[in-house]
Amino acid sequence: MPVLETIADKDLPLKRDLELLAELLAATIREQAGIATAEQIESIRELALSYVQGSNPEAGKMLAKSLSGLDPSTTVALVRGFGYFSHLSNIAEDLHHNRRRRAHKIAGSGPQRGSIAAAINTLTGRGVKAAEIIAMLGESLIAPVLTAHPTEVKRKTILDSHRAVAQLLAERDRYAMTPEELSDNKAALERVLLALWQTREIRTFKLTVQDEIENGAAYFRNTFLHELPRLYLDLEDKLAALCEQSISLPNFIQVGSWIGGDRDGNPFVTGDVLRYAVSRQSGIALDYYYQQCMKLENELSMSTRIVDVDSALQALANSATDEKDRKSEEPYRLAVSAVRARIFATAVKIGTFHHQLHDVANAAEYANAQALLDDLAVIAASLKAHGAALLANGRLRRLQRAVSVFGFYLAPLDMRQYSGMHEKVISELFTHAGLEEYMRLDEASRRAVLLRELSSARPLTSAYVEYSEDVQKELDIYRAASEVQARYGASVLPNYIISNCDSVSDMLEVAVLMKEVGLVQLAPKLSSKINIIPLFETIPDLRSAGKIMTELFAIPQWRNLLGCRDNVQEVMLGYSDSNKDGGYLTSNWELYKAELTLVEVFQAANFKMRLFHGRGGTVGRGGGPAHDAILAQPAGSVNGQIRITEQGEVITAKYADREVGRRNLEILIAATLEASFPEASPPLNDVMERRQLMEKLSLSAYQAYRDLVYATPDFITYFREATPINEIPSLNIGSRPAARKSTNSIGDLRAIPWVFSWSQCRLMLPGWYGFGTAISEYLKESGDEGLALLQQLYRDWPFFNSTISNMDMVLAKSDIAIAARYSELVQDQELAQRIFTRIKAEWQRTVDAVQAISKHGELLADNPMLARSLDNRLPYLDPLNHLQVELLKRLRSGEASEDVQHAVHLTINGIAAGLRNSG
Fold first, then answer.
1. CA 896, CA 888: separation in Å to the nearest integer?
2. What does the record give as the active site (predicted)?
């Protein structure tokens, strides 16, 4: 499987890695599937290459003919081979990005864009002082939040093998190897690829929430526990050098999680699952601290015959119960042993470890993480006192920061539920308590009775009432939340998010329910131990966000609740559902307008705003480069406060590799810093002109999108038959159902399978549809002058630039010729041609518009890395699409054998890998 000859000199190492992996994969296929199969696969690859390059006008037809005649075993072998090359390409490219960053640093070429150093340089160049940066970080919260939203197709077993490949490639890159070492390394790669080939890629079972918890926890074990402390310490050192004094930063960046707390549409998240999630996370944190202490014991071997220790350190050493005689002259080892024993005792007490060791028999557990930090501080202070600050500033300092950041719970866990369920619970509680018929009340009356309950110490629930199954389940989750906070502290469960929030009563309902379990308290004054957060998702919800928050802030009780939470109110904005509701351009613009309105509302109410961006992996769900996305936010909407969801396969792409993970965390910090100190705003008349133009374009794009998706008869039929939407649920990629309700409505379909399906058929429709019409209609009115204005906005306005750049990426990954083949799957071909003709025309209008505005003659002209990546993988990706069409034809015509179903699932897996951000 040779690699395309399109790589610049600086990328020759990538070419080398790709060729090595392709060679080893081809050899594995020859050995495992046979020479004849391998040769047939290579022939198809060459046809695909001709098709991609356009060198043979008949290549597409020949490719389709070749693929349609494959026998089942060859089909599976081809799908697996091309799919694996996409996965291996991802690994090699991630390694190459690390390589280029290292080369940049070694060459002393200055900080790269997106790095913290570059952000600090940018800000100081604008006249921002180091003290202002430090003060901003002191009040900041930057949080990527892992969700369990299911677009990660790969099993954990496969991901572990991918990490092994990455490590072996990195060894070849980092070290000068002897011929024998190179041979051993190559043999190790061959073994991993052989194991991969003989391992089933697709799960044979449906994931449980517990499985998802384990999958999410792996990123903490592999990346966050190691890299986040280092990132903090490096930033402290950079700022200390800048202001010539020691710096101690608060924990302004945290990694959160929804996994085990998000029950919106997921009936499998229960109170017991919530308890398990926190317990499991706690076990991982405490185990990491325990292991680090074991390493510290080996490192801190200082003898009292050589150094003097202070009395606090000696007292800590004297409390050790393990090997006191053997280590009597080594007080640091004894002190760390005492700490380690107490960590283990804490884990046993909390219930995260379920076995005992001899050295913890008499150890007392820690009451909280601060008590552990106090002991570690004793060790650090004693080391510094006798000239061993270097030792204190190594592993010990990193451990101190890890404990400070991750505590005894690892990651703050968010809870989420949709507003309709809260309404149902409140209604049933009112009914059994002999109160009003809640469902019959209007909004004003609902607010009145809910505020009454918030002011009353009388409980709504009773142990002597039998509630419905749904309500009992909800009440158990609230009780579990209260238990978890009591055991681990309020920081473990800080947020409660309300999906489909479209009224003030939706917020008050949750406050009342939290009061039932003590998370909202009346005495000595109204206070809350949890942030109650509205999620505005649809276009109407985004337009109502400012009004709802204004009315909420006018309620004295709510102002009191925020007063006990540092006057911070978080608001979550939904990218996925707003896109499905109104299309790409309108979604982006309505989100932008909502942020502008919220900035004004919060300033008027004198509260601090934190925005939580519910972004998915693909552009159709808010995805795209995080640095550009944050810088494109309206002025005043960041101010050091931002949370962003990380979903599906994007979590793997960003955080499976430690170095890549560190880079992505840096990008979030750097972009947040820059956005918090924005450049001077343009003149007001320019701002108004921009907004008026965007409003005009948005309305036009919205109409075009709604006309296709919601007003075209039988569009849902086209979507279900021209994409693999019906085959995706059986992939076992998540515990959550694909739709909120069992209907045939696009409105009830979740945004993830909606976008994922369009990606699979290479249309990417949610990432661009409507834009071409909007620009075409505008230019008919405004001509060259209008085009010049659009080009200026592309150059000068980060929001517009980011919007166009993301669309450029989506269009480059789309393929209208391949999409046409999927339209052949629609049984009613008159319907198929009628709809696909419209889609194709809009696709061309959009491509023309993007190229005219960007003044680029081709897509991805300003993103050569992605262009190179696509060039390398399209000869392997495109055949998967053609095969998927053939397999779907067989499956839907009644050939539902296990081989065919398995092959369909493998094509979905491979296409997702080739596209990377597919859902």
1. 10
2. 149, 580
Provide CB contacts within 8 A for 486, sequence distance 6+.
none
The predicted pLDDT at position 498 comes to 98
Beta bridge partner(s), residue 611: 571, 642
Bridge partners for 414 per DSSP: 495
Q: Phi first, then psi: what are they for 801, rounded to 5°?
A: -60, -45
Domain boundaries, the chain: 264-406, 417-495+502-530, 686-862
CA distances (Å), 759 to each of 47, 752, 843, 908, 918, in order? Answer: 23, 11, 14, 10, 6
Give the CATH H-level superfamily of domain 264-406. Answer: Phosphoenolpyruvate/pyruvate domain (1.20.1440.90)
Contact 762/825 with Cβ under 8 angstroms? no
495-499 and 641-646 strand pairing: unpaired
Which DSSP string do the residues of 780-807 spell out, in sequence order? HHHHHHHHHHHHHHHHH-HHHHHHHHHH
**What does the pLDDT read at residue 11?**
82
Cβ neighbours for 458, distance < 8 A, ≥ 6 positions apart:
none
Here the contacts of 455-458 (C-beta below 8 Å, separation 24 or greater) are 455/522, 455/557, 457/522, 457/523
Q: Which H or E run contains 568? A: strand 568-574
Q: For 548, phi and psi rounded to 5 degrees?
A: -65, -45
Global model pTM greater than 0.85: yes
Q: Which of 515, 580, 654, 813 is catalytic?
A: 580
CB < 8 Å & 24+ apart, contacts of 28-36: 28/190, 28/193, 28/194, 28/197, 29/77, 29/81, 29/197, 32/194, 32/197, 32/198, 33/73, 33/74, 33/77
Of 15, 87, 149, 902, the active-site residue reads 149
First-residue to last-residue Cα distance in the chain: 28
Q: What is the pLDDT of residues 331-342, one digit of tens each?
A: 999 999 999 999
pLDDT of res. 518:
95
CB 901 within 8 A of CB 732: no
Q: Which residues of the chain have pLDDT under 50?
A: 1-7, 150-151, 358, 620-621, 734-735, 919
Residues 610-649: pLDDT tens digits?
999 987 655 544 556 788 889 889 989 999 999 999 887 7
Determine phi and psi for 824, rounding to 5 degrees. Answer: -70, -15
Quote the pLDDT of residue 238: 87
Q: β-strands 141-146, 641-646: how paired? A: parallel
pLDDT reported for residue 4: 43
Beta-carbon contacts of residue 618 (< 8 Å; ≥ 6 apart): 755, 756, 759, 764, 766, 767, 810, 917, 918, 919
Backbone angles phi, psi at 141, to 5 degrees: -140, 115
Cα distances from 245 to residues 116, 134, 248, 385, 867, in angstroms, run 19, 12, 10, 19, 45
* Total number of residues shown for the chain: 919
Structure tokens at 318: 């004297």
Q: Say whether the peptide bond before residue 524 is cis (omega within 30 degrees of 0).
A: yes
Q: And the tokens for 234?
A: 């490096």
Decide if 736 contacts 273 (C-beta within 8 A): no
Q: How far apart are CA 257 and CA 296, in angstroms?
A: 30
358 in active site:
no
- Clarify whether 882 is annotated catalytic: no
The pLDDT, as a whole number, for residue 3 is 47
